[in-house]
Amino acid sequence: MELREIEVFLVLSDELHFGRTAERLFITQSRVSQTVRAMESRIGGRLFDRTSRRVALTPLGVQLRDEVRPAYDELRRAVAHARETATGVSGVLRICVPTYSMAGLHFTTIVREFQRRFPACRLTVTEEFPGDFERLRDGAFDVMCQRHPIDEPDLTVGATLSVEERVLLVRAGHPLTAKSRVDAEDLADYSLIQRSGIPRSMYDEFWPATTPSGRPIARGPAIATTSDVLQLVARGEIVHPTVSSFSTYYRHPEVVEIPLDGFAAVRSMLVWVTDHETSSIRALDDLAREIVGDL
């Protein structure tokens, strides 16, 4: 019996759901089904009772799970230890997330899988606005999640974490809520946040000084945190171009989003100081590419 088959069996034993098992293992649901059928054929008995509504272990499945799991866990620890010895993926890896919307919707999966594969490397995630690259250069963080464009010759731009269309955050009842979509030209009638330490290239791309036709866009108050954005939008002092995942991570009962046309999609990626690159950073970057895929 192959190690991958045992892994599929044990994860399905935990989840008792073919779809969630496939998501955890980054394989298709049909692959999970095929693996289970092959195991049952090889063993000569059913491991799971399956109906359209539920999945449950059979007594034979419970016996196999209880006898296999300790050996599997010990083998996984041995493989992880060998990998860490070979690759040097150990110690602490510090990630800075200026806002979680810059990390994308796969970020939690990436972090969880990294911790599973490399238990000797402690991964820390800190939300710190505005994401000043000097925090990488001075060694406060090892990796940062940031948005394109990144034009810094001493930095390496790694895996893409997300590509998202833009939305505009406005207060509930704002005149723009009468529209199903808004355009970049609409921004000329309202104020956007000041730069507030945001990297210049990203700020100019994301919160431009003029509309595509050249109309100036006013600046509103400075901000220090992501919560400031929501409060200012809710009070009607600014409108805020961002991406749709922003509302997944941050909410305010008086703030709504409207699709925003006239700008290119937003790309977020991992970035680090080239001269500070380590085996742990490379392992994180490789894993992000594996999970997110080509965007």
Automatic annotation (TrEMBL):
Signal peptide range: none
Keyword Cytoplasm: no
Domain HTH lysR-type as annotated: residue spans: 1-58
GO molecular function: DNA binding; DNA-binding transcription factor activity
UniProt keyword annotation of DNA-binding present: yes
InterPro entries: LysR_HTH_N (IPR000847), LysR_subst-bd (IPR005119), WH-like_DNA-bd_sf (IPR036388), WH_DNA-bd_sf (IPR036390)
GO cellular component assignments: protein-DNA complex
Assigned keywords, A-Z: DNA-binding, Transcription, Transcription regulation
Top-level taxonomic group: Bacteria
Database matches in PANTHER family: HCA OPERON TRANSCRIPTIONAL ACTIVATOR HCAR (PTHR30346:SF0), TRANSCRIPTIONAL DUAL REGULATOR HCAR-RELATED (PTHR30346)
Family: Belongs to the LysR transcriptional regulatory family.
Protein name stated in the entry: LysR family transcriptional regulator
Organism (species): Mumia zhuanghuii
